Amino acid sequence: MEVKEKSKKRELIKTIAIIFLAVLLVLTFFSNTIMNRSLPEVATGMVSSGTINAKIRGSGTVSANETYEVILNQTREVRSVCVKVGDTVSQGDLLFVLGDVESQELQDAQNQLQTLNIEYQKQLLNLSKEYATSDLSIKTLQEDLQKAIQQRDANVVTDAEISYAKGDLATAKNELTQIGLMVDELNAMLTDNEEYQEAQAAVTKWTQEVSSAETAVETYEKQLEKLQNGGSVDLDRQIADAKTALEKAKNTWRSEWLAYKSDLGALIEAVRNDGYSVTSINTGTDTPQEISGNNQVYIEAFLTKYVSPTPPTTGGGTGGEEEAEVQTSAAVNSSLSQDELQDYQTAYDALLSAQNDVASKQTAYDRLVDDQDIATGSASEQRRAIQRKLDEAESELRAAQRELRDAEDALEEADGANSALKDQIKLYEAAKREQDARIETLNNQIATLEEK
């Protein structure tokens, strides 16, 4: 039974498949016919030349797209209007008729014309009165013009005249530079003298010794006077104050050293390059280094030789490219600018001042420490001790003063040995002043020529 049912199902499926294939085959054969039924039919023809006649038919209302208003710029009476609403008008047609009465605008214009005519007549009357004055003014102007023409003819200057004047100015400036170099060279010969340098170092040394001895004498005199007036000597307080002042001076010296040690190093290098035998000063450390002996003498000689007391000046002319600045000896001899040398001078002065201040306060402190024994014992014993110290200080002062006088005499003698050089320096300095005056005259002359 089951076998028969399966056989019927297979037969049914086979039949359906055959019908589907048959329908598919029929549709395949008639597909073009079916598609052609829905396509539009067209016809072809040959293209030929001809005229296309276009015609447009329609109905509507034509109206103007602008409105024109006729407005008068005068106040007039309208007597009659010659057209009505809806009338057709052409160019030149009469629209309205005005009254024969003059307008207010016309009357105002006529009044203004009359006023102007009256003013015109007044001007004509005044012109005749002012003619004489105008004629005198014209004569004065003609005279001024004649003078100006004469002045112009007198101020004729050629380019050659200006060029010659500028050439003279350039030559004068060059001569001034040469004179300045010679003065610097002679000054250098003065400061390079060894005897002079040694005497100068001695003067510096004994000047400091004299100052220290004077301070000691003054201190002992005050102490002695205080004891004589019934007071007492408190050295502990003075030592403490002196120590505080010494520490403050040392701190200042260290601050100045940190600020200026690089400039000092550059200064020492420049001094060596100039031929001076400066011994080593360690500018790479933060501990202040003392400037003394020959180092101090050589550095001061170098600064005296090259640092100008006043900033360099130049000529004030208008020489253009031909004008050359007057160079200072610093720029010529040391290859350093005047600004750099001024910085070196500032650094050296600051360091030496701080160094001397420390030395002075150290001496005062040491002296007070050595004098501690004078504060012991009775008042009479203290007076005797202070008097003994005062005598010693006065003796030291006299000795230092003698040494200072000897050093000054040696310096004067060494300085006098160069009297011939000094005489030459004076001659060149006088020539320099004359050359400065000549340059000023040439500058004024060029300015006058260029103004003409």
Which features does this protein show?
single chain, 452 residues, mainly alpha, two-stranded antiparallel sheet, 2% strand
Which helices and strands appear, and what pairs or packs with what?
Elements lengths: L1 H28 L1 H8 L39 E4 L14 E3 L5 H51 L4 H33 L2 H35 L6 H39 L19 H14 L22 H5 L4 H33 L8 H38 L2 H33 L1
Antiparallel strand pairs: 1-2
Helix pairs in contact: 4-7, 4-11, 5-7, 5-9, 5-10, 6-9
Report on the structure:
- It is built from eleven helices and two strands.
- It has 452 residues and is mainly alpha-helical.
- The protein has a domain at 194-311 and 327-417.
- A two-stranded antiparallel sheet has the order 1-2.
- Helix 5 packs across helix 9.
- The longest helix has 51 residues, at 104-154.
- It is extended and about 150 Å long.
What's the quick description here?
The chain has 452 residues and is an all-alpha fold. It is 70% helix and 2% strand. A two-stranded antiparallel ribbon has the order 1-2.
Spatial strand arrangement across the major sheet: 1-2
Which residues form runs of ≥5 with pLDDT under 50?
310-334
The number of strands is 2
Q: Structural class, judged by helices and strands?
A: mainly alpha
Order of helices and strands: HHEEHHHHHHHHH
| Shape annotation | extended
The Rg value, from CA coordinates, equals 60 Å
- Biggest β-sheet, characterized? 2 strands, antiparallel
N- and C-termini, Cα separation: 148 Å
In percent terms, what proportion of residues is strand?
Answer: under 5%
Q: Helical proportion? A: over 70%
Our count of helices gives 11
Arithmetic mean pLDDT: 75
